[in-house]
Write a structure and sequence with these properties.
The longest helix is centred in the C-terminal third of the chain and has 22 residues. This protein has two domains: about 280 residues, Rossmann fold (3-Layer(aba) Sandwich); about 240 residues, Glycogen Phosphorylase B (Rossmann fold, 3-Layer(aba) Sandwich). The protein is built from 19 helices and 19 strands. By secondary structure, the chain is of the alpha/beta class. The mean pLDDT is about 95.
Length: about 550
């Protein structure tokens, strides 16, 4: 088929995602999507976001916040045929709303069976079926409206598969609409071809144009799906015009999975943070009359910990405060952190500001480990107010990210934004978020060997002693530093090492603010536009 048009410039953008901050969010994806949208709006782009409702239209607060209204003239009903040969009816409706200049379309269930999937409050409950029904809704939306975008952006495999569908449908219409696939975390499952087929999700059985390293070629959709054994991430990567990841290390890992042919169409967009040390100091001065870390560290803990829903362990206030945070899952390596207490004395206390994701087995494992160190470890299990979370990061001696696997590591950037140095696993992704103080005069971090509780303990103790010596003006602590290189640096150049907190703030301001993300994001958008133009030529 001859494609007659590819957009010469980008104005209208459709975004498919499963999370959006202030509407439906579980982890960092919702924040990243919102930040990208805010950047694009400031640049003058017109944005429409498509999501499952996740039941948010049942919330009066969200209805008001997003001015959501039921779309009376949209109704999408039909039958899907399962692998068992049975018919599965569905009926989908939609709510439309907006925030600022951004439009939002939420797909809802109009019958009980469809609503049990699309309207489930748990964002990732019954995920494959949510994705399938969202795509069915998008197929009807294309018939409902004459509007067409100049760019598609799909986030992670679930939003990406929806964007892949739209990209393919537009190609059928004679439109080469650029598709930028954003991978925040490779997590795509694999399914047999029936999952995306016209019988179930609604992908047409067509030949489409995909990039092959030096040119575009026609490929049958089923053959492309089967080539990757139904892996959704790899399929989306091949269908997309450009593929964005959150770090260069992660991009390299993805290329390793699909092949060097994908190098030309990959790009990187760092996550940014809006955390501001001056705002945190202002809050602390208003509440405690001081922003001195040595003075208020444990005052803040005793005052605020009750708001954080402690669920594992207990801390006796006093000593050094080590902070970590994130989803309570094995990926985050909190068990390694707790095991490091075996190599630390009783002065070192660990507070994990966790977020439950339903991994009960891992929670029980952490509870068993924590029972060995009563009074020295506490894990919280719910979201806490942002300013309180920021304040804990600010007063901490050290923030630690002990992850086994991390595409980027926004927790590292956020901690440094409020002036707290970090201890990080030496893994791709995290290594791009900080500079080792042992190797760089403007260092902000200490890296440790992954999966090694003893090396982690040495790193934590060394960096915590340095920050305590700075915060409390007790330079005698430097003699206790177990890392010989750090001890020598601190002993012979205390003025230099005392700037570590300033270095953290400067490093973030230079590398991880909106201006950096904006430049990288615009480069990725342009790359997707160029490759969609090439796609239109064959």
């Amino acid at each position: 088929m001859f494609i007659i048009w590819a957009p010469p410039h980008i104005e209208k953008i459709w975004i498919t995602t499963f999370e959006l901050e202030d509407l439906a969010r579980l982890g960092g994806l919702g924040s990243a999507v919102r930040r990208h949208i805010d950047i694009l709006v400031r640049r003058g782009f017109k944005i429409r976001v498509f999501m499952p409702s996740h039941g948010r239209h049942f919330s009066d607060e969200i209805l008001r916040r997003f001015s959501l209204r039921f779309v009376e003239d949209f109704k999408c009903c039909g039958v899907r045929k399962g692998v068992d040969g049975r018919d599965y009816p569905y009926c989908i409706g939609a709510y439309e709303g907006s925030f600022g200049e951004v439009y939002v379309t939420l797909f809802i269930g109009l019958d009980r069976e469809t609503g049990m999937i699309l309207d489930t409050w748990d964002i990732y409950s019954n995920l494959p079926e949510k994705v399938s029904l969202m795509i069915r809704g998008l197929k009807c939306w294309l018939e409902h409206t004459d509007e067409r975008p100049d760019l598609l952006i799909g986030h992670d495999w679930h939003g990406g598969l929806a964007a892949s569908f739209l990209r393919i449908m537009f190609e059928k219409e004679g439109l080469s609409i650029p598709f930028l696939y954003f991978i925040h975390l490779i997590s795509g499952p694999s399914f047999p071809y029936h999952y995306i087929s016209s019988e179930w999700t609604g992908f047409p059985l067509e030949n489409i144009r995909v990039w092959r390293g030096w040119r575009h070629e026609y490929v049958d959709i089923k053959d492309l799906w089967d080539k990757y054994y139904g892996n959704t991430d790899l399929f989306n990567i091949d269908v997309a015009d450009a593929v964005a990841t959150v770090s260069y290390g992660y991009s390299k890992e993805i290329i390793g999975r699909v092949g060097e042919w994908a190098v030309p169409k990959t790009c990187v967009v760092y996550n940014a943070t809006d955390w501001n040390i001056d705002e945190v100091k202002k809050f602390l001065r208003a509440r405690y009359g001081s922003d001195d870390r040595c003075e208020i560290r444990w005052r803040l803990y005793k005052d605020m910990i009750r708001y954080a829903n402690p669920c594992i362990g207990h801390i006796e206030p006093g000593g050094f405060l080590i902070i970590s945070g994130g989803r309570i899952s094995g990926q985050k390596g909190f068990d390694i952190l707790i095991r490091s207490l075996e190599h630390l004395d009783h002065r070192f206390k660990i507070l994990i500001l966790g977020l439950r994701v339903g991994d009960v087995g891992y929670e029980n494992y952490l509870r068993e480990l924590a029972s060995k160190y009563f009074g020295r470890i506490l894990v919280t299990c719910n979201n806490i107010d942002k300013i309180i979370y920021q304040s804990f990061n600010y007063v901490a001696n050290v923030v630690v990210v002990p992850s086994r696997y991390e595409p980027f590591g926004l927790a590292s950037v956020e901690a440094q934004a409020v002036g707290t140095p970090v201890v990080l696993s030496r893994i791709p992704g995290l290594s791009e978020t900080a500079k080792d103080v042992r190797l760089d005069p403007e260092g902000t971090a200490v890296f440790f060997t992954p999966e090694d509780p003893m090396d982690l303990a040495i790193s934590l103790k060394s960096l915590a002693l340095i920050t305590e010596a700075i915060d409390c003006k007790d330079h005698s602590l430097i003699n206790e530093i177990p890392d010989p290189l750090l001890r020598n640096i601190a002993s012979y150049n205390i003025w230099h090492i005392s700037k570590i907190r300033e270095n953290c703030v400067s490093f973030v301001d230079k590398n991880f603010r909106d201006k950096n993300t904006e430049n990288m994001l615009l480069e990725c958008i342009e790359k997707s536009r160029v490759y969609s133009y090439y796609r239109s030529l064959i």
